[in-house]
Design a protein that fits this description.
With 292 residues, the protein is an alpha/beta fold. The chain is 39% helix and 25% strand. The mean pLDDT is 84. Belongs to the LysR transcriptional regulatory family.
Length: 292
Amino acid sequence: MEVFARVVDLGGFTAAARACGLTPSGVSKLITRLETRLGTRLIHRSTRRLSLTPEGQAFHARAVRILGEMEEAEREASAGATPRGHLRVNSNVPFGMRHLIPLVPEFLAAHPGVTIDLVLSDAVVDLMEEQADVAIRTGPLRDSSLMIRKLGSTRMVVVASPAYLERHGTPGRPEDLARHKGIGWTFPRTIGGWPFRTDNGIEEHMPPIIARASDGYAARLLALGGVGFARMAHFQVDADIASGALMPVLEDVHPGGSEDIHAVYLGGFSPQPARVRAFVDFIASRCRLPDA
């Protein structure tokens, strides 16, 4: 029943297999077995898409309700379970260094039965492939199969060092960035350009990228070194701006677009282990983002 619901909710056998830790052929066999037991076809299969039969629509509605009630019952029964076991956490580098690492000692002291692996990387990870229990992600989320807990939001800012601005000048308009140098990323980003507010609405302008960094901490160091402009989360560079080590530019036209920061973890109809629930609740209650 749970696999069937995942196939419907995620729109295919492959996505459901990934979410359930099965192979696509294994998912197909389970659906066939379910249809055989019920004596009716639930899903029309084609090479391009899946669609539910009327019987499948009715079964799916009941299945989701039943599975939800089971999840709630199990969650209530296990609410008092003591968190224990090994916890694997993946976080982007700036958030991990600024907010997460300082909280780990307190979390471990409060939950002595838990051990933790903490991996810092700005690359988006697949929780199942990386065998991570929780990941911290910034920006838009695409994987609808994940459970999500919002930790806050941060304003974005375009910055450069005073030394760079002295050598190359300060841009007065977003279009001026085309004559400057920029710092980018070694991994694909959901947001490609830098948005600015113009008379024509929101337009994207960015300088030619001459250096790429694997994470926000490295990008910050490149900006501090005078390499060029970087678009960063404000909490990453607020201390540098306050000290004058980095200067924000184009603030009058920069929309100040914010990016949400989430804790994400594998969802499903089964309750999460107590250690995962305890960790997500802990960081959600302790994190205080400057621009949240």
